[in-house]
Amino acid sequence: MAAADTPERIQEAERFSREVLPAVSRTFALSVQLLRGELGRAVLCAYLLCRIADTIEDDGHAAPEDKARLLAEFVACLDDAAAADAFPARAAGIRGDAAHVRLLQHTDLVCALFRSLTPGSRDRVAHWVREMGRGMAAFTLRHPLGLRIQTVEEYREYCYYVAGTVGCLLTELWREHGQVPAARYDALWARCTRFGEALQTVNILKDIAVDVERENAIYVPECTLQAHGGSQATLLDPSHIAANRAAVGEFITLAWADLDEAFEYLLLLPRRALSVRAFCVLPLLYAYATLRELTRTDAMLRSGDAVKISRAEVKSLMVAGLGALSSNALLRRLVASVRERPFTPLAALVR
């Protein structure tokens, strides 16, 4: 029997969700907190549900059949409160980062928060989390020895399931909560998958070595690596770094194009929807800065290494991005500056 969704339990669920968010989010924690009211609750819940699915997928030790089964059981939790309450025990064997495992072990609370959302929000969140979960399970079974993307087309398919779906989910929530007019919706919808996929590609590129060593996953396609004289088997081999860097360069080019599409998505959001613009602008700015650094290094191909932007730049971009929200011209100038050099306060806005 499922625990009753009393007001006290809903309060506990929301309190836990807000407390765990910063520990499990590298990009969206502050952005989610900028959204208020029912929209904020819906995005918070949706984000944590996606992180739970991601935690299952990322366990490099669990058998693929077990992960696929757990993903199916997790998706079922959206329709069955009793299944949600039982899920933490069912998923007890999943390993990973401590904060993510803690979130997984409180799936029952996140699902309680989900059930407290407005009907329209519940419907859209459930639809896209199901789509993500099904896609993750399919890729887990497709690559039982560890994720090894083979072609650019397969890479695109993977990114759609794990990130493009998030862009779709968010865009439907913006409409559900009256943040975008009908006349603007189609243009946003045409770009919404790129919003999620661009951020995913930047994260993948900066963490190439981390993903190989911690999660037994390689996202740079084998065909692309082979075209440059490398391979997934030698991805972190210092003697192949030039060939592998050339292959990664193709994906850096792809990421620039996707990120520019994602930026146009931001500019299409109505200026009156300031909180939604704020939600989108910060991860995009951080992605532009990270991608700039990726063009100048091969650190992501060295064992134990990754690419990060400085805390000082993160803080400067936060201030500048939020300050430029109401002006598309200022946002364009800011992005143009970030693409070229590490951002310092006022550098982009006074030229």
Question: Overview of this structure, please?
Answer:
The chain is mostly helical and 351 residues long. It has a domain at 1-120. It has 16 helices and no strands. Helix 3 packs across helix 6 (98-104), helix 8 (119-142) runs antiparallel to helix 9 and helix 10 packs parallel to helix 14 (274-294). The termini are far apart. The model has no long low-confidence stretch (mean pLDDT 95).
Short characterization:
The protein is mainly alpha-helical. Helix content is 70%, strand content 0%. The termini are far apart.
Detail the topology: elements first, then pairings.
Layout: H1 7-24, H2 29-33, H3 37-58, H4 64-76, H5 81-90, H6 98-104, H7 107-115, H8 119-142, H9 152-176, H10 182-206, H11 208-215, H12 222-227, H13 241-268, H14 274-294, H15 311-323, H16 328-340
Helix pairs in contact: 1-3, 1-6, 1-7, 3-6, 3-7, 3-8, 3-9, 4-5, 4-8, 5-7, 8-9, 9-10, 10-13, 10-14, 13-14, 14-15, 14-16
